[in-house]
Structure formats: C-alpha cells, structure tokens
What we know:
- Strand 3 and strand 4 (about 50-55) form a beta hairpin.
- The chain starts with a strand and ends with a helix.
- It contains 7 helices and 12 strands.
- With about 250 residues, it is an alpha/beta fold.
- It has one domain: Glycoside hydrolase/deacetylase (TIM Barrel), CATH 3.20.20.
- Strands 1, 2, 6, 10, 11 and 12 form a 6-stranded parallel β-sheet that branches. Strands 4-3-5 form a 3-stranded antiparallel β-sheet, with no helix packed on it.
- The structure holds zinc ion.
- Zinc ion (ZN) binds near residues 9, 10, 93, 97 and 133.
Amino acid sequence: MKYFTWNFDDGLEEDKETxxxxxxxxxxxxxxLNSALFGKRQMIGRIRNLGIKEVPLSxxxxxxxxxxxxxxxxxxxxxxxxDVYSGFEIASHTAEHVNMVKCSEEECIRQVKSDQDVLGxxxxxxxxGFAYPFGRCNSRSMAVLxxxxxxxxRTASFAKNFSLTDNLLELPVTSWHIRKDAVKKxxxxxxxxxxxxxxxxxxAHGYEFDFHTKESNFEKFKRICDMVAGRDxxxxxxxxxxxxxxxxxxx
Length: 251
Ligand SMILES: [Zn+2]
C-alpha cells in the first residue's frame, strides 16, 4: 500500500481553509503545534517562496522599503484550537518553537513536555509525534524525545526514496509543497511500483499558501490533494497513522 501524509507546522490561520479542503477530499493530516504561541500575530518576510523573517505586527510598516515581500503569519488563538483541529492528528513542535540543537537538555525537555501536556489536555490524547522547529536536530535532541515518549520526529531534510526510514526520530520529508518539483514527485509516487509499502510526507506552512506565487498557493495544494485523494492504492492519513500501518505491515 501507499501512504500519503500532509504535515503542517505552527498552527496558522490558513489551516482553517486547508482543513476545509482536506475534509472535502477525505484526507487525514498532521498539524505540529506550539502551545505557548497560540494567537501570536506576526508578518513573515519572504524571498520568492521561502519565508525567512518573522516580524512582530507592532514593528511591521507596510510603507517601509524592503527587499522582502510580506504576508500575514497569524497563529490561531487558543480558544479556537481544539475546535479547528478536531479529528486531525496533533503533534508537538515544542512549546515556543525553539531550536533543539541550541537549547540545553533541560530546556529541550521542558519545551517538549509542556507542549505534550497542554496539547494532550486540549485534545484528550497522548502526543507522540513531533516536528523539529527549523528542522534542526542532533543525537541529544533525539534522546530527549525518546525520553518524552515521542515515537516519530520529522526533520526538514529530504528522503531519497519512498521507503519509510528506519530511524523514526529523524524522519525526513519527501517533499515541501513550495518546491518546483513537488507535483512531479507526487506523480512519481503515484506511478511507482514496489512490493513494499511506500510513504510520502509533504510538508507546508499555512502562510505559504498566501504567497500567491506560482509555486506557493492554495491552487497547487488543491491540485496535489486531487492527485492522491480517493484512490484505492493510496491511503491519505496522518503521519502517525501511516507510520503505524507501515510498521504493523512489516511485522
Ligand atoms: Zn515551525
């Protein structure tokens, strides 16, 4: 079987529209949330399709000349979170979106555990998935996650093929929807033949859908959903579900 999973980071306002489209297509997905940053409002400065600088709303001046183009980067308020994400897998992204490689071990543990606590209470479930902020990880952060009961953790490096990696605490992405070859990669996945289960993880930040560039917009997202949804040979589910299914099938 083939498993296709979407991964969305940071708990952004665009996730509401994203979820509407996912539901229309009967697709699962995973949302990686920062529980200490709910409701935070910033602008994101980009170069082409890459968001590179977050600016607090209070410091943003639309009239100020800048090499960067800005889009909104608003996180969903706490009182809406449980409702918006109901029915989807929620994973941790640290409480405050910290770089795990730069934090002390103690701070890493605090960032993960407090996020698991808050999200677990909101969604009445254990939180066992994780995405590394900025994609940054090392052996120490993997050890911390293991200690916290995290079973898989997503990086931002790219997988070489459609096999599920052995080290689930260093889970690569298959593609990032802003990449020029994202649709081509999905086509390759659809056309690929293998005796083994295959895995495709596409990741995105909701604000990227508001860039309105050729490679970063809601239309492209819909097109990818359209390609993989409703097929007998592809299960479109959360990342945790895909990993569990592939692991069980392998036993
Ligand atoms: Zn993030």
